Amino acid sequence: MKNFLITLIASTFLLIPTLFITKVVRAAQSPVKAITPHIRASSWPDRIIVTPTPTPASSFSVTWRTDKTVKNTHGQIVKASPNARYDVNAKEFSAKTYRTSPDKGINSQGQFSYPSNTGLPIVSYHSLTFYNLQADTNYNYRVEGASGKWSPWQQIKTAPTNTEQDFEFLYFGDAQNGIYSHWPLMLRHAWQHAPNAKFAVYAGDLVNEGASDQQWSNWLNAGQFIHRSLPAVLVAGNHEYDWQMQDNEQKNWALSTLWQDQFTLPLSPSLPKALQETAYVTHYPDLDVFVLDSEAQGNIALLQAQATWLDRKLQNSSAKWRIVTLHHPIFSSCGMPLGTAGQDEPDVRAAFLPIMLKHNVDLVLQGHDHAYSRGSIGTEKDLAIVASSTSLKQVKSVFVTTVAGPKTYPVKPTRWDEYRDYGVTLERIGENTPTYQIVKKSNQQLSYQAFMGDGTLYDAFTLTKNKAEGKTLIVANDLPPERMFNNTGLYKTHYDLAE
User: Fold this and answer.
1) Distance of alpha carbon 260 from alpha carbon 211, whole angstroms
2) What's the chain's average pLDDT?
3) Could you tell me the CA-to-CA distances from 311 to 356, 376, 473 in Å, in that order?
């Protein structure tokens, strides 16, 4: 009996830490929802956002929302002028209207439900593309809800056509968490830093749950006037996908139908229906931006369809600078917060990297990893150039991954060692450091700067290109020390920001 009691007591004490640890892990895996507003639709237009067409020098698209009572509505546009009543010369166009229930979705697989939106009323989404505009010209526009209920006038400038003209754009990695509390500050800071940007690239995971109308409300309201004047080049990430609940209690992982409800993006007729408005291209003077849907990785056929499409589009591109943006990195830098397995996506790399290298894509802009990383693939001329200057490198392509929101991951211990056979080198990393990026195109170079949330420069490089020397990467010499978790201060878990 004594031995039994001793054994029982010992076993009990051995169980205590196990039970305690299990409880902590479960708590960490159950995000606490942040309390955020959820603005309901009305007869007035809201969630107004401008998106590019394939030809942003002569057109742009705008999408907005109202309640279900608005069945027909309009948009107006006029060339900007100093006249007090510029509006009297505005032209009016009818919008396309689509009514939908946020808690119901319909796609090629049928109708399904989104439990996170249960009980939300039917709403109307409206879209309009303004065509036949003059290049490099300011236009004023506004959109209507119910009859006579107009938005304030907004101003937007069409893209130039002069290939010699300099311009810049913004690039953001994942916002995803803290999209009500943290993300608006980062977005505004970036816009104030580059108020003349022609567009902004959002490299996926804009929200945490792609089917959550409340999270989209937070993201779209975070930069209301910015979204109305700065065209958004939108990339679908894995968090823009969500579970679609079937009537038979089966569920399917697919792009949230809220994506195509809320945004009007370029179509790519040669691609499958599942990739419409997630894989597309937009053309700026001497700079083409190609958008890919890397979350289609669950379907090899969809990845290959995009690879074939990208190969053909790059072959036909006459732009001096070609940029590809996708959510999942070609080369991953991160392990998950509690592990080191990483987030490697070999199917994405196998499908897209050969095409990128075949056409010497200049810059690849990515998200997903929730850390900062920059690396490049060099050419045969590397050794001679590196020997004379450590800041110069002859390259084929540069790969950048960033995060804009407060959820950050550690870089995996192997860094990019497992990718050495691809000839790629990891050249800069950053942990616990959200950033925004300004990319500037000029006649002979593409310059890139990454800024931390306080406006301090974190990374910078320039790509130059000419027929004699090829493409050269020039990295800034006065960059601050790399920021790592062990030298940047305490980090509070992102779970309290899981909106």
Assistant:
1) 12
2) 89
3) 8, 20, 24
